[in-house]
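hey can u run this one w/ 4'-deoxy-4'-aminopyridoxal-5'-phosphate bound, need the structure tokens asap thx
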Amino acid sequence: MSKYLNPRFGTFDAYVPGEQPRDRQYIKLNTNENPFPPSPFAQRLARQAAAELQLYSDPEVKALASVAAQRLGVKEENLIFTNGSDEILYFAFLAFCGEDTPAVFPDLTYGFYPVFARACGVDYQEIPLSENWEVIPGDYAGADGTIFLANPNAPTGIALSSDQIEKILIANPDRVVVVDEAYVNFGGETVVSLIQTYDRLLVTRTFSKSYSLAGARLGIGIASEGLIADLKKIKYSVNPYNVNAMTAAAGVGALLDREYFEKNVETIKENRAYLAAALQDRGFCVLPSETNFLFVKKPGISGGELYRGFKERGVLVRYFDLARTKDFVRISIGTKDELDFLIRALDQITEAQK
Ligand code: PMP
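ok here u go:
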């Protein structure tokens, strides 16, 4: 680091993305990507858009807004599009947290939240999950700041119902509540319709998981016109062309190719059940997941040992080296062949332990 860096950034560690090694071919089950390629229709629209890249992209992303509004049952004025959902979350920290308004989120959740808070120079409060790794809605009543909830939560995979989220909204009548629905298409309940009742609810979505577009970087914010206007103020203050033309076109294609989306989500849910059963057969504790990953542990072997054992055998999973999570690994749901490979690797790891 140089002496010129704003001291605010010198005092904390940046977010560490899941590893993307290029040294050998790995089976990548560490960053919750979709194992299937983007819809062929989405790919075709992106290629067509590439022929016009001499032009700036549309800052209002109109074509995508119209398709997404219809799909989500909201108005275009209720939507903002961003460079991945990380960017809408960052905008939300900038817009709705401040000196007197800290961020409030669970002590085990998406690891970017504390980093965003620090990057924005705001305080944050962490509310512990229960013994069973659940968010307890009552613990958020009368919260001291803007609430951020990943629902389903990561890395646990456990979801709150929409009624439970509504309880949190009711118990915080003057607070913005941000519900990060990155994984909701794999089983959780969405709260998008609650934006009609609560003008201080922001729901965020991503195309990275269920739509197989992690590399395109596309996120959505869904909220009342008032909150969207606030977020657009931020967007137009930092990067109006945040969604590139190829990505916007791919997003349209992905939303319109509904059959492809539904088939892949269904397969991932089936594969999730298949992997959960295989792990339980082998003595694992598997948290109940509504996502495209499983958070798992096995008595007698640490998360670090599992992570290293898998990596040596060509499989990447995610390990969080924190006191509370050191027994666990998080495994993204891949294709059936990838999961069979992982299960064979696991059997070798446990054999080598004997
Ligand atoms: N929220 C959660 C809970 C996530 O796990 C992720 C993925 N790392 C994101 C948001 C951000 O995803 P993206 O920026 O790819 O949309």
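The pocket of 4'-deoxy-4'-aminopyridoxal-5'-phosphate is lined by residues 84-86, 110, 150, 154, 180, 182, 206, 208, 214, 219 (CB under 6 Å). anyway lmk if its weird
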